[in-house]
């Protein structure tokens, strides 16, 4: 059983590891005030919501026989490993499980494509301009310029929109000279957007996905689809695709940390304006990466990451 926001249920089930999703969410990304009633005390509870202490206490309230989590001085009964704020997310949670004696591979991220109809435009370059926060949204005019370049190269393009992102996606399509039919998704805020099975088919059948540091980038990795991911304000060393591949990798993570060690530190991933490091990524960089991947014979399912990190 996994306690998570209700909208993540199809994603959780696609892993094949979850039998039941317990709908639980707090405002923003905070710890829920309580879990639904009627949940039996589990044999084992694993805290995947930070290092505590609120999340530790929430799970402890279920009365589990064992509670696994990172160490926190305010919850001394949880004797897990120390928290590392600069650790990659996948590595962090796998390290937690390994500390308790459970095998875990941070590169084991693949999911099976759900059964059902395929993409309306197989082989298209899928461009996703949205992200939950403005700090991770590359400008509309730059996305549109990339789309025009991709089309000049003879490749079809679809623009996807999450809930409430229809206007953003339509703007990219309009500026790029695409018809409205090239936009997929974009229901009202609170709407589920593209059904998960359809979104998986769209991504799985894509030639390449162009996206910021947001959920669709992780879905492309999970489905083995080539991707160009635009990073800022957070480094791909914390959230990037798996592996340590080279130029023949199926993923390109574009990132400009700037000079000096401080410039590589994470900014605010929930900020209200585009991060300066994100804005350092140029149209030519993105277009070159898309065209290189589109011409590549690298198997899309091979984990790998080629990070292009340039100083300003």
Question: Can you give a write-up of this model?
Answer:
This protein is α/β, with parallel strands linked by helices and 312 residues long. It has 2 domains: 98 residues, no CATH class; 185 residues, Glycogen Phosphorylase B (Rossmann fold, 3-Layer(aba) Sandwich). It has 10 helices and 11 strands. Strands 7-6-5-8-9-10-11 form a 7-stranded parallel sheet, sandwiched between helices. The chain has a two-stranded parallel sheet with strand order 1-2. A two-stranded parallel sheet has the order 3-4. The chain is globular and about 60 Å long. It starts with a strand and ends with a strand.
Map the helices and strands:
Elements: E1 2-4, H1 9-14, E2 21-23, E3 44-46, H2 54-60, E4 66-68, H3 89-99, E5 125-128, H4 140-152, E6 157-161, H5 166-176, E7 183-185, H6 196-204, E8 208-212, H7 215-223, E9 227-230, H8 236-239, E10 251-255, H9 276-279, H10 283-294, E11 306-309
Parallel strand pairs: 1-2, 3-4, 5-6, 5-8, 6-7, 8-9, 9-10, 10-11
Helix pairs in contact: 4-5, 4-10
């Amino acid at each position: 059983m996994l306690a998570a926001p209700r909208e993540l249920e199809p994603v959780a089930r696609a892993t094949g590891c979850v039998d039941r999703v317990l709908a639980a969410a707090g405002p923003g990304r905070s710890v829920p005030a309580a879990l639904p009633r009627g949940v039996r005390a589990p044999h084992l509870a694993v805290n995947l919501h930070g290092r505590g202490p609120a999340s530790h206490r929430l799970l402890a309230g279920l009365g589990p026989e064992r509670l696994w989590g990172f160490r926190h001085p305010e919850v001394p009964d949880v004797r897990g490993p120390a928290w590392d704020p600069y650790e990659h997310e996948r590595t962090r949670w796998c390290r937690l499980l390994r500390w308790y004696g459970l095998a875990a591979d941070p590169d084991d991220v693949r999911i099976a494509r759900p059964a059902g109809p395929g993409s309306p435009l197989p082989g298209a370059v899928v461009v996703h301009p949205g992200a939950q926060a403005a700090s991770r949204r590359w400008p509309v005019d730059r996305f549109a310029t990339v789309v025009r370049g991709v089309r000049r190269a003879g490749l079809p393009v679809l623009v996807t929109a999450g809930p409430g992102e229809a206007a953003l996606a339509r703007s990219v399509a309009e500026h790029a000279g695409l018809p409205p039919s090239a936009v997929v998704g974009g229901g009202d805020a609170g709407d589920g957007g593209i059904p998960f099975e359809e979104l998986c088919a769209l991504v799985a059948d894509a030639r390449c996905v162009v996206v910021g540091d947001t959920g669709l980038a992780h879905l492309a990795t999970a489905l083995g689809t080539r991707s160009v991911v635009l990073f800022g304000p957070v480094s791909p060393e914390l959230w990037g695709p798996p592996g340590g591949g080279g130029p023949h990798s199926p993923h390109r993570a574009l990132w400009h940390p700037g000079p000096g060690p401080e410039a590589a530190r994470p900014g605010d991933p929930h900020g209200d304006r585009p991060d300066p490091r994100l804005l350092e990524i140029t149209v030519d960089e993105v277009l070159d990466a898309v065209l290189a991947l589109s011409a590549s014979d690298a198997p899309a399912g091979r984990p790998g990451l080629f990070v292009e990190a340039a100083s300003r």
